[in-house]
Amino acid sequence: MAKKTWVNIGGTYRDVKTAWVNMGGIWKKFIPKGNIAGVWKEFIQYALKIYEYGRENILLVEGYRSGSRGSIIKNSDHIRLFIKNDDQYDKIGITTDTLIDVTEFNSLKMIYDLSSTNDRGNLYFKIDKTKNSSEQQYVARNTLYDDGTSLETTIDVSSLSGDFYVQVVSYVPNYNFLEAKIYAIWLE
Q1: Which residue ranges form the domains of the chain, and what is each CATH number?
Q2: Which sign does the torsion angle of CA 130, 94, 121, 123 carry?
Q3: Would you say residue 34 has pLDDT above 80?
Q4: Rounded Cα–Cα distance for residues 183 and 144 (Å)
Q5: How far apart are CA 93 and CA 124, in angstroms?
Q6: Cβ distance 102 to 165 under 8 Å?
Q7: Where on the tree of life does the source sit, at the highest rank (predicted)?
């Protein structure tokens, strides 16, 4: 569910699909705000929860794969991407099974945990028009590195409109391991 904003035009309330502002000659989407009793507040904004601590609101399936040593395990509170290889690099990912319209949203967020041998593994959080694309193909992407703690990352999707797949691809070079835990993915 996306934001819902109404505006009074000539005595008739109309549903606002998207709010835009011209900043330096460039039109950008923004979150509408109103002055309520002298305090500026954002109008109600809803989040589209794709995955949240074991609960899939939108089905996540295996996405891009390169190599044979990766596994995806759906646990009670997270999705685990694991790679342990001996002599080659491996990649494995997850993707939404269906396209998601991001037009009404400003950000795509994920809570994750990442660990790997010698801090050499990467996690790619991205959106793309192609369902099983590699980490090299994306419309918007964050590259995440191992630091051993649970983190939140955000991709700005405010300038995008239309349907996209939400994807996470993990990568580890040869003779290493990687473990990524995905706890939540959502749009807001």
Answers
A1: 5-42 (no CATH), 48-187 (2.60.120.260)
A2: positive
A3: no
A4: 15
A5: 9
A6: no
A7: Bacteria
